[in-house]
Amino acid sequence: MAPGGKHSPNRVGNYFEIHNTRMHQHVLEGFVREDTLELSTLPDGILMTGELPCLGGLRIEVRKKLKRLDGGAEPLVRTVSYSYNVSVAGVGVVFRYDSPHPFDGPDYHGDHHKHVYDVLGGDREGRVEIVPNEEAIPTLSEVIDEAREWYYANRNKLDELGLL
Fold first, then answer.
1. Domain residue ranges in the chain
2. Alpha helices (H) in 30-163, listed in sequence order
């Protein structure tokens, strides 16, 4: 990983300033209806969980662990595990990104990966794509952007199915 890359360790205050700014932007843009993510303190870091309701019945379920890398009032943190699950309410999963050690054991993969489904075509099996390198691992903001692109690309089909 290159120094200063998007997944580099960051001071907790700076991390959440960036996170809050981006979430506020996503809500103002109108795709994300509200930021409902919650933070829980862990002995060694922070757990971010929740669901972001979006346009078209899409929702993004977030489970992300930030590990504290040092002590002090403003510790360094870094994402060590995550799952970003994008789905259409009542229909199924569109895509999901997982770290190598996902929270649900049966879907274990040793690499960062993405599950992709043709949910509007009835696909429930999907396929797995390996994320090729660390810089290709998306941030939550990038997952929201990808979900927004999917929504606008499939808006007519969602309307035809009565989901809008």
1. 10-160
2. 140-160
The answer to whether 23 and 32 are in contact (CB under 8 A) is yes
163: left (phi over 0), alpha (psi -120 to 50) or beta: alpha
H or E element at residue 45: strand 45-53
The pLDDT tens digits along the chain (164 residues) read 334 677 777 888 888 898 999 999 999 999 999 999 998 888 888 899 999 999 999 999 999 999 998 877 788 888 999 999 999 998 999 999 998 864 555 556 678 899 999 999 988 889 989 998 888 899 999 999 999 999 999 999 888 878 77
Q: How far apart are CA 104 and CA 61, in angstroms?
A: 14
Cα 83 from Cα 51, distance rounded (Å): 12
